[in-house]
Amino acid sequence: MIVNESTGSADGLRMAGTVRFAGVMLLTLGAFQAMEGLRTLLQERAYLVTPDGMLIALDWTVWGWGHLVLGLICAATGWGVLRGLMWARVAGVLFTAFAALAHFALLAAAPLWCSILICVEVVIIYALCAHGSEVRHPRR
């Protein structure tokens, strides 16, 4: 159970719920990132623009592997956030910010999908920054 760090009780369950939400969303974001990477690797014509029309002109294979690796890292970080680990909260903010930048760079290829994911990433960063220090995993 995640408890309120300042009081040692379960008073901050709402805040703990926000951090749990961020952990679940990081797991979900990681799965979506990995699926996006696999889709790009398996079917380069999945996007309507060529790499030259992108903000950063990279080969689709590079984009695919980048999204796949970032997805696995985000999923592992989400698992760590759900376990209440401090390194996972820090890594969650960093990798989620990086994922938002990657989706911004991919905005020309999939505007609706990338816009939705950028909004989700902003909510994850808010939850981890605003409420992350209020919870911890209790020692056994």
UniProtKB/TrEMBL annotation:
Domain DUF7144: 19-132
Assigned keywords, A-Z: Membrane, Transmembrane, Transmembrane helix
Keyword Nucleotide-binding: no
Pfam families named in the record: DUF7144
Keyword Acyltransferase tagged: no
TM segment ranges: 21-42, 62-82, 87-104, 110-130
Superkingdom to which the source organism belongs: Bacteria
InterPro entries registered for this protein in UniProt: DUF7144
Identification of the protein by name: DUF7144 domain-containing protein
Organism for this UniProt entry: Actinoplanes italicus
